[in-house]
């Protein structure tokens, strides 16, 4: 089986993903109800479609925001690529991406 750049995320790959994520708008916004089952399900669907997504999380301390991002990543079996302020970038590779929806395909990965 051939290895690809996503088998293990090197610093260069992380840098490329952060650069791609910079151009994205948040498509999931965590509200006052926190990480509800519906929000987790919708995030998983978005990761399946787009592979790389930006999420806006609620205000709070840096530790609370980081915990929220990590909990969402764990619930959706994804990886936190970057978080700054209230924005979080999540990644989950789809082995059969939809070329019309995948942010990785759209940005030339």
Can you describe this structure in just a few lines?
This protein has 4 helices and 4 strands, in the order αβαβαββα.
How is this structure best described in words?
The protein is an alpha+beta fold. It has one domain (11-106): Translation Initiation Factor IF3 (2-Layer Sandwich). 40% of the residues lie in helices and 18% in strands. It has helices at 11-22, 37-50, 62-75, 103-106, and strands spanning 26-29, 52-56, 79-84, 87-91. A 4-stranded mixed sheet has the order 1-2-4-3, with helices on both faces. Strand 3 and strand 4 (87-91) form a beta hairpin.
Question: What is the topology?
Answer:
Blueprint: H1 11-22, E1 26-29, H2 37-50, E2 52-56, H3 62-75, E3 79-84, E4 87-91, H4 103-106
Parallel strand pairs: 1-2
Antiparallel strand pairs: 2-4, 3-4
From the structure above, extract its key features:
109 residues, alpha+beta, 4 helices
First-last Cα distance: 19 Å
Helix content: 40-55%
Low-confidence parts:
none
- Spell the H/E element sequence: HEHEHEEH
Q: Strand portion, in percent?
A: 15-25%
Quick one: CATH class?
A: Alpha Beta
- Total domain units: 1
The strand count comes to 4
CATH fold-level assignment:
Translation Initiation Factor IF3
Question: What structural class is derived from the secondary structure elements?
Answer: alpha+beta
Q: Can you summarize the main beta sheet?
A: 4 strands, mixed
Number of helices: 4
* Rounded mean pLDDT score: 89
Q: Walk across the major sheet and give the strand order.
A: 1-2-4-3
Shape, per Cα inertia axes: globular
* CATH homolog superfamily: YhbY-like
